[in-house]
Amino acid sequence: DAKTTQPPSMDCAEGRAANLPCNHSTISGNEYVYWYRQIHSQGPQYIIHGLKNNETNEMASLIITEDRKSSTLILPHATLRDTAVYYCIVRVPEHSGGYQKVTFGIGTKLQVIP
Amino acid sequence: IAGITQAPTSQILAAGRRMTLRCTQDMRHNAMYWYRQDLGLGLRLIHYSNTAGTTGKGEVPDGYSVSRANTDDFPLTLASAVPSQTSVYFCASSDRSSGTDTQYFGPGTRLTVL
Predict the structure, then answer these.
(1) Which of A100, A102, A103, A104 would you mutate first to test chain B, the one with the most B CBs within 10 A?
(2) What is the pLDDT of residues B20-37, one digit of tens each?
(3) How many CB atoms lie within 10 A of CB B94?
């Protein structure tokens, strides 16, 4: 799996958009970009994923650059409950007889400030 | 829809005792996984199951066993617990027949072995 680089921490004012960057300059053509978050003492929560097109769901938007070497997760109106560690990972979905584990890096600790 | 449930939420266990962590999903996902999360080591895959009736070893399988008698349940057993198995355990599931094999995680079991 390609390596990702994220800033270790960010602050965001409550109600404002939180823009979390991720660099994945060695991403290969068949690797997807996934975002998860982990709120303290809870299980990792899937947020969104994409291959090359921008994606939006009820939680967030994912913007992937045209060369796919970086992406940005956007939480449009951050709330205090969005305070968490956010993980960007890139991986190829496994469809053969093997397995595909999820490997989290250090992630970005997002602190939403009242 | 509950998603993935795990039981117990937390447990303190004497070394040498046998313990089974339970995991149930109601999403009819074919694949299930057990991870442990330790500070500084991230998520590590213990065992996985690509479909009911099959299981496989992950990165750190020693001291653990699993079974997959049906689609919904994937219990993890510690035959004789040791203090190094103190950790937070997460169960996950995914639909390997989908295009992206996204893994969804349970809330976790915090296990302390004394």
Answers:
(1) A102
(2) 999 999 999 999 999 999
(3) 25
